[in-house]
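Sanity check. The docking grid for S-adenosylmethionine depends on where the pocket ends up, so I'm generating a full predicted complex first rather than guessing from homology. Inputs follow.
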Amino acid sequence: MSEIKLYNDDCIVAMKKVADKSIDLIVTDPPYNLGNFMKNRDTNLSKMRDNFFGSAGWDDMEFDDWEKSMDNFFKSSARVMKKGGTMIVFMAIIKVETIIRLAEKHGFYYKTTGIWHKTNPMPRNMNLHFVNSTEAWVYFTYKTRTGTFNNGGAMFHDFVETSVTPNGERKYGKHPTQKPESLIQHFVEILSNPDDWVLDPFMGSGTTGVVAKRTERNFIGVELDKTYFDMAKSRIEEKRNETKCN
Ligand SMILES: C[S@@+](CC[C@H](N)C(=O)[O-])C[C@H]1O[C@@H](n2cnc3c(N)ncnc32)[C@H](O)[C@@H]1O
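Predicted complex below; grid placement will be based on this.
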């Protein structure tokens, strides 16, 4: 039976409760911090669509503050990771270099950067420029050059394609950057095994937790915002056997 622990808190505070060297896989989607970038471009934020990585309330720090917060996140992640553990960090393409630099500083081994392509993006300003339909994911192992990789003999490309999050996955409320379960499940199944411990320190609506539960992994999830935390708890509880909430 899987174990689930959920924290409605700042991830750096909550991760202090996670034991050293206890996590097999981190799959997370931290703030991309593109709010100020988008505002400076006079983007009409009110018209931004679901699954677009623009400002969503948590996303408008100064760059230095965001970099410091990501540095703290990687420092805490390094403490809780098992040697040979694996990490996937979703990120805006223009921030990938910063993410790799900070992760390497804390002992993560950079494997690759891949692309998530949304097959049905909103055709926003399609007659003015290229429609945004991609986000990056950055793949690391911890203290080793390889980790769990369950390919079963198949070749997996570094290009993953899905639709945007279907409405059926939003019945407990809408999160502005909710990832599709199929996208997260792709990584959880390849990069971990049943009974492993999966952590998402920025869990938003709880997609990683839903997938971890479904695939019989243990899960620790953290979300700062109470509304999104409650959404995540409801989604994960629907799938759970036993949940401890803090
Ligand atoms: C990009 S969203 C994650 C969306 C998630 N992948 C999903 O499928 O719903 C990032 C989340 O991190 C949360 N967040 C921001 N700063 C945080 C912090 N310091 N600690 C914990 N959560 C935080 C935000 O409230 C937001 O819900």
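Relevant for the grid: The helical segments are 11-14, 35-40, 63-80, 96-105, 181-191, 207-214, 226-239.
Also worth noting: The domain at 4-245 is CATH 3.40.50.150 (Rossmann fold).
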